[in-house]
Design a protein that fits this description.
This protein is of the alpha+beta class. 34% of the residues lie in helices and 17% in strands. The strands form 3 sheets. The protein has a 3-stranded mixed beta sheet. Helix 1 (19-32) crosses helix 2. It is globular and about 70 Å long. The two termini are 25 Å apart.
Length: 210
């Protein structure tokens, strides 16, 4: 799952037999949804094949100068920023975190990116509460990939449009209420209110800023 940090908006989800395959699918979604030329700055943990997926989806083969064997391998872009947080564990407990700058100038990457994965870890836990097909050690797992995709799409739509996130609320104190509850889609300017389930089942969600 890929989320936008400020809005907590889920912008994509990859499903595959391997973590690399899931990452490639996820980045293809990102490429179609507003980042066609280069990936945005990314932070992830040390698992998964994100590095390989970034090169596969966004990498380019260097121009051939006419000397020697022409290059065939894709290379990362000069302006990419990708930071990994590798957790060090002992007896199942996290005892430290190592920051690894995979792409980009190390000083610039560490200055620009927040070195944590708390928000995506929180949304992964939320997924297990909202989608029983993702719960571990259960008989409710998906027997078919198509059904898992359908359940995951519905979960992401509900999360983005119909569910408020406590840390996104605004204090308004307008006489009738203290807080304005907001969904990730509202913070991302894709909706002007929290959708009801009836609305989700009756209408096609269209961004309000288009």
């Amino acid at each position: 799952t890929l989320i936008e940090v400020d809005a907590r908006l889920r912008v994509g989800r990859g499903i595959g037999k391997t973590e690399t395959a899931a990452s490639i699918e996820l980045l293809h979604q990102l490429k179609r949804r507003g980042h066609p030329d280069a990936p945005p700055p990314l932070v992830s943990d040390g698992w998964g094949g994100h590095r390989e997926a970034l090169i596969e989806v966004y990498g380019e083969v260097p121009d051939y100068s006419g000397r020697g064997r022409p290059p065939t391998l894709k290379q990362p872009g000069q302006d990419w920023q990708y930071l990994q947080l590798v957790k060090q564990r002992e007896n199942g407990r996290v005892i430290g975190v190592e920051l690894r700058v995979i792409f980009g100038n190390p000083e610039q990457v560490l200055a620009d990116l927040e070195p944590h994965t708390a928000y995506v870890e929180r949304t992964n836990l939320t997924s297990r509460h909202m989608n029983s097909r993702l719960v571990r050690k259960t008989l409710g797992f998906s027997k078919r990939v198509a059904m898992l995709r359908a359940a995951s799409v519905w979960e992401d739509v509900v999360y983005n449009l119909a569910r408020h996130v406590k840390t996104l609320r605004l204090e308004v104190n307008d006489g009738t209420r203290r807080w304005l509850q907001r969904s990730p889609a509202m913070v991302a300017a894709l909706a002007d209110h929290i959708w009801s389930i009836e609305e989700l089942l009756s209408y096609v969600p269209v961004p309000s800023n288009t």
